[in-house]
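ugh ok so i messed up the first submission bc i forgot one of the chains. this is the corrected input, ALL of the components this time, i swear. 149 residues overall. if the numbers dont match what u have on ur side tell me asap before i send this to the collaborators (the ones from the other lab, u know who)
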Amino acid sequence: MFMQRCAPRPHSLLLVTALAVLAGSASAGAGPARPARHQAMLGGKPAAAVPGDNAANGARLYQSCMGCHSLGENDVGPRHRGVVGRAAGSVPDYAYSAALRKSGLVWTPANLDKWLTNPQKLVPGTKMYFSVVKPQDRADIIAYLAQQK
Ligand code: HEC
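and heres the new structure output, hopefully the right one now
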């Protein structure tokens, strides 16, 4: 059921979206969770490719990236500061796969959404094996990254 799957993690997400969009419906518990999220999406723009919407939640979700990435230092993956708008494979001192280096992609929010959905599908041969299943989570992470100039 919805309630079980979503408790307790989206509670804070619910608060964030509800505060941002429609204060009021957040306090009634799990029932309004879905409407509140809906409102957030209707009141704003499409879930993907919207920098700024749920960046606070994105900051929390970004912890799942931190096994391999940080904002300022290359690690298993390249550093992320400034990644939104940057050409893929362009951090000079990071050893990218040839596939990503030659991809010709620019990290627009839309491309980041595709990347986080399935890196191997967007760039066959990339060495990133990690994906984010939920569209809202991807949008939030991208919103967070867009703030890290
Ligand atoms: C298990 C390790 C791992 C995790 C976890 C991981 N990545 Fe990566 N990531 C990589 C590697 C390795 C690359 C380099 C890929 C290549 O060169 O083909 C990469 C590359 C990238 C790039 C391309 C950057 C550039 O300079 O072109 C982006 C964007 C990215 N990752 C975002 C994320 C985000 C956001 C998360 C968390 C949701 C994440 N990654 C989680 C390993 C990881």
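quick check: Confidence is low (pLDDT under 50) at residues 1-52. that seems consistent at least. Residues 64-65, 67-69, 76-78, 83, 88-89, 91, 96-97, 99-100, 107, 112, 115-116, 126-128, 130, 132, 141 surround heme C (CB under 6 Å).
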